[in-house]
Design a protein that fits this description.
The chain is mainly beta. It has helices at residues 2-30, 275-282, and strands at residues 34-46, 58-63, 66-73, 78-83, 89-94, 106-113, 116-121, 126-130, 136-141, 166-168, 171-175, 191-195, 201-203, 219-221, 225-230, 233-238, 243-248, 254-258, 270-272, 287-294, 299-305, 327-332, 338-343, 350-357, 360-364, 377-387. The chain has two helices and 26 strands. 35% of the residues are buried. The model is unreliable at 6-30 (pLDDT under 50).
């Protein structure tokens, strides 16, 4: 009987072990079973003669019954609005430079809907809320936080990097730039908040010390990052770190999660200071990009830029608006587990310009304005999230 019992125990242990292994294998498979699949849906936005291609300030929003696509025509100080369904131009807001409604030269903008349009300017240290006629309805001055930190006036809300303002109750949460000659970057917060009623400001614990300091004086460190908010948490995606950082609204607790690409071993933190060389390196080095939340499918998309080589004969200054040559998109579930990574063909898509729609992810198809694409259009292709 003892021999039989011992034999049965061994069999049970073996079965349990096999079941555990199977579970681990199943979990491994389940975490890599999604992919972004190209569809036949194309959107082409006509650009007139005075509109210069630069879609680093682009937003999709719904107003009443119309879905609108809006972007900043930087060269002419205009905000353009298109009917997303028909791709027809609805109207433009011409931003005045001088006078009582003058905003100077717009350095960026953010729009939630027609009642919430915010412009940043090189000549005003704050956000300017405007109406659809371009008139200023509110000024939100940056000021100084309660702990004495002077909010940097160079803040530019943009869709690339994705550092849009976040409005919670009466406060607006803004990202800060790293400007060493104004503040020690180790003391510079990634986010500050401003009470839009009282004007009081507050800085938060997560500082730029998450970026390793630059030791080579001939090189400059990249301190770019992307930030989104979901379920009362801020999620930060540094461009030179495979990790993402999740924190509460008050930033009292910070969680670090690895969310790296299969195609990147070590993201590059530094590039040459010489403009011509640095511009080329910025488009060649391995780094990460925007983190985008897809509320319709409850997943995150993290852009990953692979190390590549570009032609030496071309002056690459100014070409950054067309995105990266070689990239993939990491797909994360709501628990920030990687559930897939889609590799995209080279020299087709502008990886810096993408937006989420109820139908899927739209990605700009305007890399360097090559191939069949024309400078008269901004072209977007729809991708759907599919389970393999």
């Amino acid at each position: 009987m003892k021999k039989i019992s011992l034999f049965l125990i061994c069999i049970i242990i073996t079965l349990v072990s096999c079941i555990d292994v199977k579970k681990k294998l199943d979990n491994s498979v389940n975490l890599n079973k999604y992919e972004l699949i190209k569809t036949d849906t194309i959107k082409k936005i006509v650009l007139d003669e005075e509109t210069k291609y630069n879609l680093n300030y682009l937003y999709l929003f719904k107003n009443d019954t119309i879905e609108c696509l809006s972007f900043l025509n930087y060269s002419f100080n205009q905000i353009l609005f298109y009917n997303f369904k028909t791709c027809e131009l609805l109207f433009k807001i011409d931003l005045e430079r001088d006078g009582p409604n003058g905003v100077g030269l717009a350095s960026g903008y953010y729009i939630k809907d027609f009642d919430n349009i915010y412009v940043s300017s090189y000549s005003y240290p704050g956000l300017l809320k405007i109406d659809i006629d371009g008139k200023i309805v509110q000024k939100i001055n940056y000021g100084r936080t309660e702990d004495g930190y002077q909010i940097i006036p160079s803040y530019t809300p943009s869709s690339y990097p994705s550092i849009e303002p976040v409005f919670i109750n009466n406060s607006v949460y803004l990202c800060q730039n790293a400007v060493p000659h104004l503040n020690d970057i180790k003391e510079t917060p990634l986010t500050v908040s401003i009470d839009t009623l009282s004007g009081k400001s507050k800085s938060y614990p997560l500082k730029y010390d998450i970026f390793k300091p630059n030791k080579d004086k001939n090189k400059i460190s990249s301190t770019l990052f992307s930030r989104v908010i979901c379920d009362s948490s801020f999620i930060y995606s540094p461009f030179t770190d495979e990790h993402i950082y999740i924190t509460s609204i008050n930033h009292s607790k910070i969680k670090k999660i690895k969310a790296g690409s299969n195609y990147i071993k070590d993201p590059s933190k530094e590039q040459t200071r010489i403009p011509q060389i640095g511009a080329k390196e910025n488009l060649e080095l391995a780094r990460y990009g925007n983190l985008i939340y897809d509320k319709y499918r409850n997943v995150y998309y993290r852009f990953a830029y692979h190390k590549t080589t570009l032609e030496k004969k071309i002056n690459w200054i100014g070409h950054a608006v067309y995105g990266r040559k070689k990239f993939s998109i990491i797909i994360l579930n709501s628990d920030f587990q990687i559930i897939g990574e889609t590799l995209f063909p080279e020299e087709i898509y502008n990886s810096y310009v993408a937006f989420v729609h109820k139908d899927g992810l739209y990605l700009s198809k305007d890399y360097q304005k090559n191939f069949e694409e024309s400078e008269d259009y901004a072209t977007f292709e729809l991708f759907k999230l599919k389970q393999l």
